[in-house]
Every structure is written in C-alpha cells, then in structure tokens.
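TODO from last week: model Putative methyltransferase.
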Amino acid sequence: MEVPCVRVEREDGERTRATLAEADLIDDDYEITVADGWLYVPVTDPDGVPDEYVLVERAVDERRTQTTPAELLEFEPSYERLGRAALLDEDDPDRARAIAEAILESDLPVETVLNKASKVKGETRVRDWELLAGAGTEVVHREYGCEFALDLAEVYFSPRLATERHRVAEQVRSEESRSSERARQGPGASAERAFDMFAGVGPFVIPFAKRGADCVGVDVNETAVEYLRENARRNDVADRVTAIRDDVREVASEYEDWADRLVMNLPHSADEFLASAVTIAGEDCTLHYYDIQHEDDPFGPGERAIREAAEPEYEVTVETRHTVRSYAPHELNVCLDVRLER
C-alpha cells in the first residue's frame, strides 16, 4: 500500500533517518526503501515533517517481524550498539554469555559482542573488554552521516553522546552560509576555525569539517590521533583536519588567537585546561565546556571557572546551560555553551 514517505538522496539518508528518528516520526510498520537512487523513509505524521524534506506517497513493504534478544531470553537485556558490535555491562559471566548468544541468534545486525571488564581508566580513558563473540574490538560506527573507525580497547568513545555531538555540530556554519557570508564580506571572509582540545577519533572534528570548518584536533592518545586521521580520510575532509598527538597545553601557544569554536569534552578535569583555551580563543569564540557536577549546582562551578580564566580579557556570556545526561546518582553531565568576546 502507499504510505507517506520522506524522499532523500542516498548520501543524505543516514542524517535524515537520524533526524526523523529523533523526532519520533519514522513509521516502523514499513520498510525503508531504496529505488532509483532515492531513499524513501516512511513517516507516521506528514504534518510533523520539517519543510526542508520532500514528502511523497510511495508503495513500500510492510516490515518483517524481527526476532529480538528479549524474545529469546524472556527478559529485556541491557546493551549498547556501536556499529556491528553490542556492548554489555554484566558482572555475571553466565548471564553475559547468555545475552551474547541471544544477540547473535536474533535478527540484529551484530557480529561482535563485548562485555566491559573494567572501568574507564588512565589518561587516555580506555577500558578493558571481554570478547564474547567476534574477531576483535575494532568497529566502524556511523552517526548523522559520518563514519568512524575505532578500536574500543585503545580509544575512548561513547555512542550515548551522538545526539549531543550533533547538537553542537549543527551550530557550525555550513558551506552555504559561509559562501553567503563571503559574498557579503568580500574575499577576506574565511571558513570557521574549530579546535577540539581532547579530540579522540574525531566525533566532533569530523562533522565540523563536513560542515566546512577548518579543524584542529589534539589528543594525548597516539592511537586515537591515528584513527582521527583515518576518519578524516574516510569522510573526505582530510584537507580540513589537522590532527596533533600532544598535550594541548604544549601546543596552545602555536594556535594563539586562532579559534572561532572550542570544544572541551573532558568533564572531570576540563577546568585544568582553561588557561590554554583562553590562549587559543580568537576575538569572538564559542566555547563548549563539558562538566560533571552535583545536581544542586551543575552549572555554577564551570561558569565560575570560565569567568576566572577569561575575564577581564574577554566578555563572557553563557548562551546555553544544557544537561547532556545523568552521570551517576545526583550527578549530571552538563555542557555550557559560552561566548567569549575580546
């Protein structure tokens, strides 16, 4: 039968699907279909679809009922998906193996199952994993139109932060807006310059670059920096990405007054790097500062630390106080979007 669908070009399919899924608009009773170079995404409420998308009526197949791990186990297991890997956090080894077997027997597109074997540790924030199924700990993850290769045993990466990364990336001026600005301001206008002080494999840097920014990503983890370079190539933005293996405090002076946008996603200790952030910030810079604090005052400590580091050299304006997620009982992972104007 014909149902309302959003029609997009295939290369924009993942970004569109993710946007529609976040708005709870995808009709799960029908299959997403590819035909003649177009992707058709069935939607539940055509009136709720943003005007930027093309709506059509299209005959699509009803979705085949899939076997889930919960149906095989008769309880709802907890796991995260990262590419074609499932990530468990189970203390009981027998329960972990049972869940792994059910995941592999289900219709989930999963080849690897890993169980957390330690907490995040060390300067590079990696953890140990128990391999329950599959060939290893390297995965390829896709989010919002970007592709990331990474090795979970060697680098830090959280799939839970995909929506937050997208929220920030959407603030970067797109290719189109930069072209319009150059037309207004003349040939001197340049691309936005973005600096990630703890870049990892590039989950902020890569989408920034895809939106037209010139990016610098710094990390102390040599393996993460190697993946950052690979991911820049995978996403065709290598010409816009500079990857540096170092402590950002050692390279800040080389990028003095450089950045239009700064990311500080090191929640437990970002305040220790604010002096370097002030060095790197340009005349008018947006700072995305991540923190973990008690729910009674989740934003105050970060704001006070930023003001202490940046004032009076900069006028400090907190534009957004945003709760990313609950981190632990009575503790919140938050982000301050702060404008620094010299």
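Done. The domain at 159-341 is CATH 3.40.50.150 (Rossmann fold).
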